[in-house]
Structures are given as structure tokens and as C-alpha cells.
Design goal:
- With about 350 residues, the chain is α/β, with parallel strands linked by helices.
- It contains 13 helices and 15 strands.
- An 8-stranded parallel beta sheet has the order 8-7-6-5-4-3-10-9. A 5-stranded mixed beta sheet has the order 11-12-13-14-15, with helices on both faces. It has a two-stranded antiparallel sheet with strand order 1-2.
């Protein structure tokens, strides 16, 4: 078990639920736009949001933003220690720094003292793109060993300032290197780990790298809070992070959705049916939370081979034949419907059974 810290009331480490993080890509100085994006991230299920603080105007705006949102906010600081101190005074729930690019010991200590006074954690961020020159020279480039050494050096620097509310992140865009670095560091320190694959790519290409990189670590029991890094709308990061956690049974899913990949036996347009069902189920999940409805499973199957068995085993399901489908509810066939009515009828039975109409 790792030590535990609190970021604005969200616990990280020591067995706490794995939290989902993301980062705004708005100009932090634009308070209204940033607040709107934080609201969208929160609605999507983000537990902690990070904002870039590139200058003092952004640090001041951060203070205004903090007063307008309830989600815990992390100030992301590089190079200028004064920005970190200002963000902490303006209400940051955590600051993210790389001590190596903050400057000399006195500047790092100024940040640590401010965090200590406000009783907030510091996230030490070590990134393959900004390793110290001497470590790059020692290992002749970026290596897992170099990332781990940099992390341990920066941890000791802050520990020597009598500060231990630390979260560590060490990230690379190389999935294998990222995995090895975390394996090396995991046994050598006791602080919570913020994990992810940095600069993973677009929504399409970055999903695979993130799922493998984050999933592999979580399966090893490594990781206390996660961020999926995808180019574009950060809300996509939150949705996909939740999917990773659900796939590993680390986050409870309200609806367990099952569908077959289809083959030459399929006699309906299953891609359209599954898309229609999944789209219709999204607002259902919100009403489930409001009405305290327990989770359930839905199976949409394309042929008679595995279809009847999967549909019968699910709480609600359909097994399709040529141009039609058998609707199942709680293991029993309730209706045969034509292809164009499958999605509508299946959703109707779900809503009636769960009192969600």
C-alpha cells in the first residue's frame, strides 16, 4: 500500500478508489471558458482537473476559477517558482512541479513551504522529455533507469525539506519504457503514483497506447490515480479512462454492455443496432444514478450460434436471426421483433423494468 494524500477531498493512495484526472486545454486566463470546460469534465466523471499556469495573469485567473467550481484543481507549474506560490495562495488543491526545472534549492523550498502552510500535496512530475542533463549523459539518453533515478532524486530533495505529502508521476510516450520505469520505482518508494502515457496521440491512436500502458500497470497493482493523454477535447480522456477502469473492474459500471463482433452468419445490420442501443443507454445511466437503480447487463448478439446463450444470460438481450430478433428479459424470450424495431423495443423493456420511463 502507498501512503495517502488528499487533493481537495479526493483521496489518493492507500487503497482509495483510483481517481480520474484530466487537464484543461483552454487559456487559463479566460476564466469563463475554463470554468465551462471544467464543468464538462466534471459531468463526464473527472475527479481532479489540472490547469496550466504559464504566467502571473493565469495564476490570478486560477484564483477566480477556484471560487467558481467545486472540483479539486491542480496548478501545473514549470520554471517559475513564484507562479506555484501564487497558485497555492489562490487556492490550489495540489501543485504539479518538476523540481529539476524550478531552479535552485531555495526556490523549490519556497514552493514546499507554501504547500506545507496550506496543507496540500505536491505532485512531482518526471517526464522523458525533460530529464536532467546529467542523467541523460549518464544513461546516454532516456531510459527507464534514468526516469527512476530522477524521480528518487527529486523525492529526496523534497523529503529533506520535511515534506511528505507527495504524489509521483514519471511518464513516457514509449509504452515499454514507461512500464519498466514504474516497475523500477514501485518497490523503492511509498508515495502514490499518478500514471499515464504522456503524449499518447489522437483519440484514435492514443487509446491503444493508453489502454495497454495504463492497464498493464493497474493489473500489477501499480497506480493510484490516472490520466489518459489524448489530443483534442479532454472530455474524451475522461470517458476513456473510465472505460479502462471498468474493464479492470476497478470502477463500477452501471450498464455492462455485450455485443458480438459479427461474422458472415449475421442476418441484420448489427453495427447500427448496437450503436442505436448504446446511444439510447447513455442518458439511462444518468437516470439510474438519480433513481438508485442497480447495475444490469445488456447483450446484443448477431446470430444463432452464441446469440441465444449470451442474450439469455444477460438481464436484457436480443439474439438476431435473418431480419429479426428475439428479445430476452431475465433469461426468458418475451417478443420477436423485426430488425428495424429491435433497438427501440429492447430499450423500452429496459426502461419499463427499471422504472426509467
Amino acid at each position: 500500500m502507498s501512503r495517502q494524500v488528499s487533493c481537495g477531498g479526493v483521496l489518493i493512495g492507500d487503497g482509495a478508489p483510483i481517481s480520474i484526472q484530466s487537464m484543461t486545454n483552454t487559456d487559463t486566463r479566460n476564466v469563463a471558458e475554463t470554468v465551462r470546460q471544467i464543468g464538462r469534465l466534471t459531468d463526464a466523471g473527472c475527479d481532479i482537473v489540472r490547469c496550466a499556469i504559464p504566467d502571473m495573469e493565469a495564476a490570478d485567473a486560477f484564483g477566480q476559477i477556484k471560487k467558481l467550481v467545486k472540483t479539486p484543481l491542480v496548478a501545473d507549474i514549470h520554471f517559475d517558482y513564484r507562479l506555484a506560490v501564487a497558485a497555492i495562495k489562490n487556492g490550489a488543491d495540489k501543485v504539479r512541479i518538476n523540481p529539476g526545472n524550478i531552479g535552485n534549492r531555495d526556490r523549490v523550498k519556497a514552493v514546499v513551504d507554501a504547500a506545507k502552510e496550506r496543507q496540500i500535496p505536491i505532485r512531482i512530475g518526471v517526464n522523458s522529455g525533460s530529464l536532467e542533463k546529467e542523467i541523460l549523459e549518464k544513461y546516454q539518453g532516456v531510459t527507464a533507469e534514468g526516469l527512476a533515478e530522477s524521480a528518487l532524486k527529486n523525492i529526496k530533495l523534497i523529503e529533506d525539506m520535511d515534506f511528505s505529502d507527495i504524489v509521483l508521476s514519471l511518464k513516457s510516450s514509449d509504452v515499454r519504457l514507461n512500464y519498466r520505469a514504474h516497475k523500477l520505482i514501485f518497490e523503492k518508494m511509498e508515495y502514490p503514483l499518478h500514471i499515464g502515457i504522456t503524449e499518447a496521440g489522437t483519440v484514435e491512436s492514443g487509446k491503444a497506447k493508453s489502454a495497454i500502458g495504463i492497464g498493464a500497470l493497474l493489473l500489477e497493482g501499480i497506480g493510484d490515480t490516472i490520466r489518459v493523454s489524448l489530443t483534442g477535447d479532454p472530455v474524451n480522456e475522461v470517458f476513456f479512462a473510465a472505460e479502462i477502469l471498468k474493464a479492470l473492474d476497478l470502477k463500477k459500471s452501471s450498464i455492462h454492455f455485450i455485443s458480438c463482433p459479427t461474422c458472415g452468419r449475421c442476418g441484420v445490420d448489427l453495427a447500427k443496432i448496437t450503436a442505436d442501443v448504446e446511444t439510447a443507454l447513455k442518458p439511462v445511466e444518468d437516470r439510474m444514478k438519480q433513481n438508485n437503480v442497480s447495475s444490469f447487463s445488456v447483450a446484443v448478439m448477431g446470430c444463432e450460434v452464441n446469440g441465444p446463450g449470451e442474450a439469455k444470460d444477460a438481464d436484457f438481450g436480443v439474439a438476431c436471426g435473418k431480419g429479426k430478433g428475439l428479445i430476452f428479459k431475465n433469461g426468458e424470450i418475451v417478443k420477436t421483433v423485426q430488425e428495424e424495431d429491435i433497438a427501440k423495443e429492447l430499450i423500452l423493456y429496459i426502461k419499463q423494468e427499471k422504472i426509467l420511463v
